[in-house]
Design a protein that fits this description.
The structure holds two protein chains of two kinds. Chain A is globular, with a radius of gyration of 19 Å. Chain A has a single domain, classed as GHMP Kinase, N-terminal domain (Ribosomal Protein S5, domain 2), CATH 3.30.230. In chain A, strand 6, helix 1 and strand 7 form a beta-alpha-beta unit. In chain A, strands 3-4-5-7-6 form a five-stranded mixed beta sheet. A four-stranded antiparallel beta sheet of chain A has the order 9-8-10-11, sandwiched between helices. Chain A has a two-stranded antiparallel sheet with strand order 1-2. Helix content of chain A is about 30%, strand content about 30%. By secondary structure, chain A is α+β, with helices and mostly antiparallel strands. Chain B is an alpha+beta fold. In chain B, a hairpin with a 2-residue loop joins strand 2 and strand 3. Chain B is elongated, with a radius of gyration of 19 Å. The two termini of chain B are about 30 Å apart. The chains are: A alpha+beta, B alpha+beta. The interface between A and B is large, with 39 and 43 residues. Strand 11 of chain A pairs antiparallel with strand 12 of chain B.
């Protein structure tokens, strides 16, 4: 978001984006479920150059104990970027103000979809570690965490998915990469629940007309359905793997 | 901000009221509480304002200092927004490092002001490697709901009445004389935010604290004088359908007018 940046490249040429994508094309997207042994559920997402690992622990006992809710499970979410994750400088390890805000809104998303009333007096921890970033990390992280939750067998209303939509050289484009994120005129992160069509996360920055904001959410909702297909494929592959490993016991 | 069992009982009561198309203080669903602004309340800081939004009070202080620009924005001034949930404002607020709610609030206000170019940061360069930094600090004085809109109003108002200290040069060394202040900051469009809470299936504007306790989620939009949307934040677990979204956007545009008048 910097109209004043003198180094801004031309992001759209001949109706195509710098990466060669059309306005609605997603970057290559792959999700692998069950990548970690210790975690109750896990997933790795490869989306453009993004590499994010999500792990779920729980439901388990709450610590400190006084935070316990007798009616439902608590949800905690932690989004953090590794200090080596960006192309530029070495970052600082641990959470910063940006990641604390993202963790908070990610938590809200999962509080909506997890059937928390099934596990009173417990907590479900969701960890999202960005090990390589390439624009749209919060969306990719939540998309991966959703698969990790399903991998952990935690009952949910829906698999949530999303995409970032922003204005680049005057056009609304889907799934911003790093370059478009840095030099675009707006950036909007959207997570939806595809089954209900509800918007569960929306964070936007940039100057848009109200009509463009409405189109941003709609473009993202449509693209999220494509993301969901990849999530489902990852889970099917994981179940097939589990089934073949435990084939004898199942029969 | 549920502190006691009585807050939960009140929240349940509010939900029932809202279902019957009522609000605890008798307002319409899309009506603000009475709002007043106190401007230039302190002398030491460059700009200040207190927003009274119903019983909610938020103070914003602006300091202007010399700063080193970010390496990727060598010609732009700095803007920083901080927020302190002071223990004077609510029994649940504790002294200590900022929690996630106060960080979120500061960042939502920051996004609005930054994205709308409410302060023209490109005009804050003094020399190579030297710029002015604008530091906005939000102090919550009394938390009775809808801190976001009160904070955004206070911040914008304080920025508008801030005066830049005189820049004094001694060879290569620059200094600010905070006792001599004359010019306003280079300003762009004004920004205000409108926050809507979802209580049951209803959407209400400018919730008080009992209504916030009954709410399942909120949506905030930042809007500018010329009618552009510059920021958005959805918070809380509730989901919003696309038509609710559109509706809230249109309402923000309408409701921003009464807020802009107060700046």
């Amino acid at each position: 978001m910097s109209s004043s940046n003198p180094n801004k490249p031309k992001l759209i040429q001949n109706g195509k984006r710098i990466s060669g994508r059309s306005f609605t094309d997603l970057r290559p997207l792959k999700i692998t479920a069950g990548v970690l042994k210790q975690a109750d559920g896990s997933a790795m997402i490869e989306w453009g150059k993004n590499r994010i690992i999500a792990a779920v622990y729980g439901p388990h006992e709450v610590f400190p104990k006084f935070l316990t809710d007798n009616r439902k499970a608590l949800v905690s979410a932690r989004y953090v970027m590794a200090p080596f994750s960006s192309l530029e400088d070495h970052g600082r390890s641990g959470p910063n103000r940006r990641s604390i805000e993202i963790s908070k809104v990610a938590k809200h998303v999962f509080e909506n979809v997890i059937l928390t009333n099934k596990f009173p007096k417990t907590i479900i921890d969701i960890h999202m570690d960005v090990v390589q970033s390439d624009g749209g990390t919060r969306i990719a992280a939540i998309t991966a965490a959703s698969v990790a939750l399903a991998d952990a067998g935690i009952p949910m209303k829906d698999l949530v998915a999303g995409v970032a939509v922003g204005k680049v050289d005057g056009e609304l484009v889907v799934d911003l990469d790093k370059l478009e994120d840095n030099h675009g005129e707006s950036d909007g992160a959207v997570i939806i629940s595809p089954r209900s069509g509800e918007v569960l996360l929306f964070q936007m920055e940039g100057l848009l007309t109200p009509d463009e904001v409405k189109r941003t959410v709609r473009l993202a909702s449509d693209a999220a359905l494509k993301v969901r297909e990849v999530q489902v494929a990852a889970l099917k592959e994981r179940y097939a793997q589990v089934a073949s490993e435990q084939g004898e016991q199942l029969l | 901000m549920i502190t006691m069992i009585s807050d939960q009982i009140k929240a349940q009561f509010v939900k029932e009221l809202i279902k019957k198309n009522n609000r605890p203080d008798g307002r319409q669903f899309l009506e603000h509480r009475s709002i007043s602004m106190q401007k230039n309340v302190f002398e030491n800081c460059e700009g200040s304002a207190i927003c009274h939004l119903g019983d909610t009070k938020v103070l914003a202080g602006v300091k202007i200092d010399l700063a080193t620009p970010f390496p990727d924005r060598p010609n732009e001034g700095m803007l920083s927004v901080g927020c302190e949930f002071s223990p004077i404002a609510h029994p649940n607020f504790q002294a200590g490092p900022p929690g996630e709610a106060s960080i979120e609030l500061a960042r939502v206000v920051d996004r609005g002001i930054r994205a709308a170019n409410a302060i023209d940061l490109t005009k804050l360069k003094i020399a190579d490697g030297k710029v002015l930094g604008v530091f906005i600090d939000l102090y919550i004085l009394d938390h009775n709901g809808n801190l976001t809109d009160a904070a955004a109003l206070a911040a914008m108002s304080a920025v508008k009445n801030a005066l830049v200290p005189k820049i004094e040069q001694d060879g290569e060394v620059y200094k600010l004389n905070h006792e001599e202040r004359k010019n306003k900051l280079p300003l762009g469009e004004d920004v205000v935010t409108c926050t809507f809470e979802k209580i049951g299936e209803s959407i209400v504007l400018d919730a008080n604290i009992d209504e916030e306790n009954a709410s399942s989620g909120r949506l905030t939009f930042g809007a500018t004088t010329s009618g552009l949307i510059c920021s958005a934040q959805k918070s809380g677990s509730a989901g919003f359908m696309l038509d609710e979204f559109d509706n809230i956007l249109d309402l923000t545009l309408e409701k921003r007018k009464e807020l802009l008048k107060l700046l």
